[in-house]
Amino acid sequence: MIIAVDGPSGSGKSSTARGVADRLGLRFLDTGATYRAVTWSAIQHGLDLDDTAAVAQRARELRLELSTDPLHQYVIADGTDITAAIREPGISERVSKIATNLDVRAELIRRQRAIIDDAQPSGGIVVEGRDIATVVATDAELKVLLTADQEARMARRGAELAVGSITAEQLRDQIVRRDADDSTVSEFQVASDGAVTIDSTFMTLEEVVETISRLATE
Ligand code: ADP
Ligand code: CDP
User: Fold this and answer.
1) Do 130 and 182 contact (CB within 8 A), yes or no?
2) Whose CA is nearest to atom 13 of ligand 1?
3) What is the pLDDT of residues 29-64, one digit of tens each?
4) Using CA atoms, how far apart are residues 130 and 127, in angstroms rounded to an integer?
5) Dist. CA 38 → ligand 2 center (Å)
6) Which residues are bridge partners to 125 per DSSP?
7) Are the CB atoms for 48 and 91 separated by under 8 Å?
């Protein structure tokens, strides 16, 4: 069983996908964390992020361990726990540049598919990202495109921030810029064949989890 959840930043992919995995006893994969981990590592190595060959080489060499336990998420890169570091604004600002590197994408998609395959004997996995239904797992049994209007997405992201870490204005700029950068990748956030679109703008997290879980077990 594979459940694919795609959508833009702040639509609720990560929290709802984790909730569905917990409820249905499935594994959980946050594919955005793989792009964030490569971004973190490229910066640590002092790479020029415009040097696509060097960054792709870093992606291939990176030792990456991702938890697929929905209740205990962690990311370890070359032995360093980067679970918190990859959520920093400095990573969020740069990750789209890394994600448009096609050699990085090829490497990370290969790794994501291996994690998805590994999860099948234990019942399956909920996978969230941008291109899961269209590229990574086109054979998913359930494909969800999760949306929410820009104001709601910004309010949700803003509520998560530590007071004073970045201003509302900076957050707005960051989300608008990331949406624009991400929209250059044609496979992102398009309703693929058989995908169900859920607009979460006026839904609670619990309602979205309930809706997806019901669709998965129908
Ligand atoms: P994404 O993975 O799409 O970027 P997240 O799952 O990280 O989104 O959600 C961003 C924030 O919004 C989190 O703090 C989460 O708890 C909250 N959230 C998610 N879905 C909803 C919802 N339907 N209603 C209100 N808040 C939500
Ligand atoms: O949580 P949020 O939606 O803000 O971001 P994320 O899911 O952690 O993804 C971070 C970035 O990684 C996105 O802005 C995309 O540029 C990229 N990404 C991607 O290219 N393909 C995916 N399947 C998932 C994320």
Assistant:
1) yes
2) 156
3) 999 999 999 999 999 999 999 999 999 999 999 999
4) 10
5) 12
6) 2, 27
7) no
pLDDT at 41: 98
Reading the block at residue 154, the tokens are 């910004």
The Cα 169–Cα 69 span in angstroms is 35
pLDDT tens digits, residue range 182-209? 887 777 767 777 899 999 999 999 999 9
Q: Which stretches of the chain are assigned E, i.e. beta strand?
A: 2-6, 27-30, 64-66, 75-77, 80-81, 125-129, 142-147, 196-199
- What's the rounded Cα separation, in Å, for the pair 201 and 213? 18
Nearest ligand to the C-alpha atom of residue 33: 2
> Domain 2-217 carries which CATH code?
3.40.50.300
Expressed in angstroms and rounded, the spacing between residue 46 Cα and the centre of ligand 1 is 32
CA 203 – CA 38 distance, rounded (Å): 33
Lowest-confidence segment of 94-98, 114-118, 176-180, 214-218 by average pLDDT: 176-180
Q: Which whole number is the average pLDDT over 153-174?
A: 80
Question: What residue ranges do the domains of the chain occupy?
Answer: 2-217
Residue partners of 97: CB distance under 8 A and separation at least 6: 39, 49, 50, 181
